[in-house]
Design goal:
The protein is of the alpha/beta class. Helices cover 31% and strands 20% of the residues. Strands 2-1-3 form a three-stranded parallel β-sheet, sandwiched between helices.
């Protein structure tokens, strides 16, 4: 999985990035190319705002999501993982 060290943030950095210094959880979303990613792309086209602490990874199918990728996300410091297909 291609998570770079540049995107690694601690909880303190996430709090510092929020307006009132409150905790902003880092979420990694695995999205199916044909379903959930299409919806996320449409939200971007429509300029629907969402938290910058959410990262989206497009997959051909969420059925191909390996449990090792989910565990790796937590190892990299993400607070939650969302799989949508």
């Amino acid at each position: 999985m291609g998570m770079s060290h540049k995107e690694d943030h601690t909880a303190e950095e996430a709090r510092a990035a929020s307006p009132e210094g409150e905790f902003q959880p880092r979420i990694l979303a695995f999205a199916c190319h044909y379903c959930a990613f299409a919806a996320a792309d449409l939200a971007g086209v429509m300029r629907v705002p969402y938290q910058p602490s959410v990262r989206i990874i497009r997959l051909p199918c969420t059925g191909k999501l390996d449990h090792a990728h989910v565990l790796r996300a937590f190892e990299q410091g993400f607070d939650g993982v969302f799989a949508a297909g």
